[in-house]
Amino acid sequence: MALCVLTALSLALGYANKARCTGPEFDEWGRSEPAYQERAYGDVCYSDIQNLWVGRDIDRHVFPYVHGGIEPDGSLWGGVVEYPVLSGLLMWAGAFFVDTDAGFLAASALLMAPFGLATAWWLGRLSGWRALLWALSPPLVLYAFHNWDLPVVACAVAAVFVVHRWTSVPLRRRATVAAVVLGLGFALKIYPALFVLPLALYVLTSGRERWDVRGALQVVGASVATAVVVNVPFMIAGFGGWAASFEFQSRRQVDISTNSVWYWGFRHWTDSADFQSAMGVVSPLLMLLSFAVACAVGWLRYERSGTYPWVPVSAAMLCGFLLLHKVHSPQYTLWLLPFFVLVRVRWGWIAAYLVADVAMGISIFRWLYLNMMGEASGIHDGFTAQALMIGVWGRAALLVGLFVAFLSARSTVDDGRPVGGGRFLPGRESPGVPANKPRQP
């Protein structure tokens, strides 16, 4: 309960910070006035929620995807938003009874706050006092209502909770339920789909004597089936609008709006069509390579310990995604934050990442403000650009380090209790089964 109360306070502070950008007047579209954009950047109270009130037909209460599409120039129309269908539904619901961007922000915050509280409760049950890293963290204040991320974070944490705390049912069944939850997460923001493979490998290797191939396939199948069931109604009702959200993301260019290492490292080449085409290949290939490395290292740990470390592997895969994807929005830190709770990495890693994130999360908007106002914003012109570079490159270096640190760390859910069909963690012997008994393929 205390964790939920503290989380509620952080969420309230987060809403108050974003609400500074709303009102006091509104134009004919319900956009806050005066000088909305200048205030959003200059006062560091920008949120995608408020910003997207205009431009996606949210203000017109158009049901998402069904009647829209994407223009040749990449602009969306007819209620299409650039997120998967459950996020689109959440956005539509938040706008249903309001007619200004201030009302949209408030209604969206009310819809999402329960997911933030549920995440705190699950993390507390999984990791005890370490869950304070969620409840009292700067990222929760900065980004809770920056975009529609609290529901998808809740899905990722709920999957871990189901696997490791719903112990009254067999592993295969609870892992299947977790896979369904991850499938719902995919229909919100894609990234929980990354965790299905490590979960399947965990189930595969958790039998007493033989690999549980059927259980692993069931996990993958349940996740895929959930994603299909959620998406098919939209595909039938308006395939062009449904596909437009994915096409928008595939067309997205490396530019200042992506805020990734690809932009900051190669910004002098971003006007080149060849560079943009190359990024469409290089970025996903490197991400897939990082996923393969993480899963392979996890397998080596399994061969030494007898348990596949699916939570640390999932955390490392997320680091690979955050580092190498061509888009890195500020609120993505919320995705990583639960893994600081669930995996026992050194506190120095966590503190350093949070400092780098705050430096980037504040300075990026101040830097955009300086550019908007035509003021000097170079690295030698003041602390804003310097803090931004510290944040961007410090965060990138820390993601590399965390990738390694996660893969060598234990999860807080690895508490020595039996997993799966009776396989025990190192240091414990299962009755009648020696801890070092070789597994039959």
Write a structural description.
There is one protein chain. The chain is an all-alpha fold and 441 residues long. It has 18 helices and 4 strands. The protein has a two-stranded antiparallel sheet. A two-stranded antiparallel ribbon has the order 3-4. It is globular, with a radius of gyration of 22 Å. The chain starts with a helix and ends in a 33-residue tail after the last helix. Mean pLDDT is 91; it is low at 416-441.
Quickly describe the structure.
The chain is mostly helical and 441 residues long. It contains 18 helices and four strands.
Major sheet strand order? 1-2
Structural class designation = mainly alpha
**How many DSSP H or I helices?**
18
Given as residue ranges, the uncertain stretches (5+ residues, pLDDT < 50) are 416-441
Oligomeric category: single chain
**What is the strand tally?**
4
Strand content: under 5%
Mean pLDDT across all amino acids: 91
Per-chain topology:
Layout (H helix, E strand, L loop, with lengths): L1 H18 L5 E2 L5 E2 L2 H7 L5 H4 L17 E2 L5 E2 L7 H11 L5 H27 L4 H4 L2 H6 L6 H16 L5 H19 L6 H9 L8 H25 L1 H13 L9 H6 L6 H33 L4 H15 L8 H10 L4 H26 L10 H26 L33
Antiparallel strand pairs: 1-2, 3-4
Helix pairs in contact: 1-5, 2-17, 4-5, 4-9, 5-8, 8-9, 9-10, 9-11, 10-11, 10-15, 11-12, 14-15, 15-16, 15-18, 17-18
